[in-house]
Amino acid sequence: MLTFDEMKQSRLFQELAADYRREVRLEGEIKGKQETVLRLLKRRFKRISSESKAKINNLSASKLNDLIDSIFDFKSVADLTAWLKVHGVDR
Prior knowledge:
The chain has about 90 residues and is mainly alpha-helical. It has one domain. The chain contains five helices and no strands. Helix 2 packs parallel to helix 4 (about 60-70). The protein is rod-shaped.
């Protein structure tokens, strides 16, 4: 039977640990982008529907970047709604 220290030295353990760290980092990045998008939209339009918030919270990091780039082109909440309808959920 392997000790925990011996298991930590194994290639499989190290690969699993690296995968886990990448996943945690990506989730943190996505969460931060979601918070930034919602903060910018709230500041711009004052109120964002819970439906739009839910859609934003299901966007990938790539789509969140696209949304961040588009926010200042929106003239109204209707533009946000249309953007979310076109870009949908891809996560």
